[in-house]
Amino acid sequence: MAVTFTRINPYAAACPSRSLIELLGAKWTILVVGCLTDGTRRFSELSKLIDGITAKELTRTLRQLERSGLVIRTVHPVVPPRVDYELSALGKTLRDPIEAILEWTDGHIDECLEAQERFDAVT
Fold first, then answer.
1. Which residues in 49-72 are b (16+ Cβ under 10 Å) and which e?
2. How many domains, the chain?
3. Residues spanned by the domain of 52
4. Alpha carbon distance 64, 23 (integer Å)
5. CB 32 within 8 A of CB 58
6. Do 21 and 68 contact (CB within 8 A), yes or no?
7. pLDDT by residue for the chain (123 residues), tens digit each?
């Protein structure tokens, strides 16, 4: 059953929703938003929580999320500077879908790994 869209057509190359879909589907986005569901975090906290992310990728992801209105970046006027990141009201609407993806992954990882092993064995 196909999904019917009333305002967008993500299957059309020129649809502006494509860039948002790309952002939301990125692995770092899911992990950053997942870490921010518990509240405000500093860059260094996010970096420690998300094993394997580079400072460049974290910065890029946070900027894209801020640009799309999903994350709020707050710079505190102290020395040394302190920057906090939190989900905006719009970003908080992603909590349930991202938690659902992470829960689905947790519940089906073994099946997917077995399927990958079977596939790799015959290719």
1. ebeebeeebbeebbebbeebebbb
2. 1
3. 17-122
4. 8
5. yes
6. no
7. 677 777 888 889 889 899 999 999 999 999 999 999 999 999 999 999 999 999 999 999 999 999 999 999 999 999 988 999 999 999 999 999 999 999 999 999 999 999 999 999 998
